[in-house]
Amino acid sequence: MLSRVRFLKRFALDLPKRARLAYCLMRDPRVSRRTKAAFAAGIGVIVTPFIDLPSVIPFVGEIDMLALTLLAMRLFIAACPDDVVADVQQQILEGRSVFDEDVHNGERIATALTRRFQHDDMASAPPAFSEPASPREAEPVAGVGR
User: Fold this and answer.
1) How many domains is the chain built from?
2) Is 20 within the bounds of a domain?
3) What is the domain range of residue 37?
4) Contact (Cβ atoms closer than 8 angstroms) between residue 14 and residue 70
5) Hey, how many other C-beta atoms are within 10 angstroms of the C-beta on 35?
6) Which of 46, 99, 105, 131 has the fewest CB atoms in 10 Å of its CB?
């Protein structure tokens, strides 16, 4: 039982790291197009609804899909040149990878969209104060103010 828990913990920690590395390698021009195409095809086969073997068993279908995805990512990373993988891993550690740049750009776009929608909401909101409807309402009341 303890070995299964360790496996699941390693699996849960390994998947995001491998996914980030695979993303960066997919965007790297030093990796051959053939390797990228094979990885994309493998992921495509995994997520297509045509191959749905253990879907009748709850939870197993999702674990199966995650395990196959991790296997595909490991095979893709192993097929990439070692110097490219080492360089991309160093960029990830330093926080200057393609993934980090894309996340930063996404944050900037999300912030700009948020400001835009807030500005649109402010423009469509009624004013905080109301002006008198007629000049008569603006006249001072007799005996007050003089």
Assistant:
1) 1
2) yes
3) 2-121
4) yes
5) 18
6) 131
Per-residue pLDDT of the chain (146 residues; tens, 9 = 90+): 567 777 777 777 888 888 899 999 999 999 999 999 999 988 888 777 665 555 555 666 667 777 788 888 889 999 999 999 999 999 999 988 999 999 999 999 999 888 888 876 666 666 555 555 555 555 555 555 54
Query: If you search the block for the tokens 């253990």, which residue do you land on?
Result: 54
List the Cα angle 20/109/103 in 5-degree steps.
Answer: 15
Are 44 and 68 within 8 A, CB to CB?
no
The answer to whether position 138 is within a domain reads no
The C-alpha torsion from 93 through 99 and 104 to 109, rounded to 10°, is -170
Residue 145 lies in a domain: no
Instruction: For residue 51, tell me if it sits in a domain.
Output: yes
The two three-digit tokens of residue 103, written as one number: 């996340």
